[in-house]
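Data deposition worksheet. Section B asks for the primary sequence of the deposited chain exactly as it was used as input, without tags or linkers unless they were present during the calculation. Section C holds the resulting structure in token form. Section D is free text for depositor observations; keep each observation to a single sentence. Incomplete worksheets are returned to the depositor.
Section A, Depositor: J.P.
Section B:
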Amino acid sequence: MPPARGGVRLALDASRRRHGRSADDGRGGGRPGVGGVILCVAASPSIDKLFEVERVEIGAIHRPTGFVQVPGGKGLNVARSAHALGAEVTATGVLAGHAGRWIDEALAAEGVRARFAWVDGETRASLSVADRTGRGLTEFYERGWDIGPEGWDRLERIVLEVLPSSGWMTLSGNLPVGAPDDGYARLVRLAREAGVPVALDARDEALLVGVSAGPQVVKVNAEEAGTLLGIKVETLEEAKEAAEELRWRVEGEGRAAIVTRGAEGAIVVTPDGAVLRARLYERGPYPVGSGDAFLGGLVTALDREATWPDALAMALGAAAANAETPGAGRLDRGRAVELSKRAEVLPFG
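Section C:
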């Protein structure tokens, strides 16, 4: 276990405070749309750092003009985005060392409730460098520590304890080194036994095996969809075909599949089989974490019994708001709502 939390200086707004029920208020069920806890699993958390420089030059010394550091990894970005939108969230994952303690303290300062499994070692870090000349981001991702079978077992026990009070569970990102290959599939099965819907956003083997367990929602980008299905996904029509095939991979009726295409928005097959195209013409300079904010906005809205078109609009608004602010998951709720009203969610065709 980590030592007691102390002070921590954060490059983020620490004035937000937790609100709502505790995780142990006795609510059962885990039915979708009942306003339960959103359990966000961050299997491989990291300290996410963003440098802003005038221009990236290989072999040169750079003096950043801006710096932001946040508790990250895809699952924590989802948790922080959903929390910013007013959802009641519990984040979980596997942490280690000084970096892990920083993440734990940083989430507490933001008001995000978290319960982590702790192992020996050191939690990883990730670095994104934003070039002000508009050439995009240069990114570096540490591989991460081997959590061992004990680390994953501890994580599963936490998930089992939180599921009874949960309305949704999200699974995001790569599995950490040392996790079982079927780690996400195991968590999906635990959630299904508890009656809790799952949204999965992964890639490669973790996605392939996770899909086989039948999550309620699968969200992937076009590249990930193409890799999983062994097809090209370069056009909107190909994205539609990929989403339809992906939906049947996760048991078809009653399931949803989302294929995102960056600036072109997303193609979605809803649980009733409707095919929608969702898009929003807003382009912020900080896209890191926008896909995670999309998922956070989606499950927050679905947990409040929003229709799928309305939930997708909220997802797009959250993603766009995230891209306007440096540091993944630091979106403004009012801005996300404002942007969601500009979203287009229409039948495909």
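Section D:
Residues 1-33 have pLDDT under 50 and may be disordered.
The chain is about 35% helix and 25% strand.
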